[in-house]
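Recall that a protein's primary structure is simply its ordered list of amino acids. Everything else, from secondary elements to tertiary packing, is in principle encoded there. The following example makes that idea concrete.
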Amino acid sequence: MNRLDDPPGLMKGRKPSFIGMNGGTETDDQQRLRFQVELEFVQCLANPNYLNFLAQRGYFKDATFINYLKYLLYWKEPEYVKYLRYPMCLYFLDLLQYEHFRREAVSSQCTKFIDDQQILLWQHYTRRRIRLLQTAAEQTPHVNPQNNGIVQSKVP
């Protein structure tokens, strides 16, 4: 089963039901599609180059688009955040709430700096995680499956 097959209660507890293109409330299929589209868009915000693309095309000057970014803050709620693969997108979604950041995102230099910092953060996180896993592996007694899970101490 795809993890997107059943979004949170098919949007129960979320913003009020939207009025579909036909003037009626959205069907379950329309809600599922909107959920998937919004999930994909929010995750794209983790890419500083995409933010630059949006800024250069004037999206961050459009009041309707800014309101849409505000609306998307519901992705920070626990029942929705679990669907995100790139949690950095929430950080950028928060930053996009500020006009100053939206203005700076148009600069390629600023975008390059953010991109570089993001890569450095990932490298630091990866190295730190590897060290923690190695330390944990060295401290964990090894289990021999031939002894029915009986823990044996390491013999040097």
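Residues 108-139 form the longest helix (32 residues). The mean pLDDT is 81.
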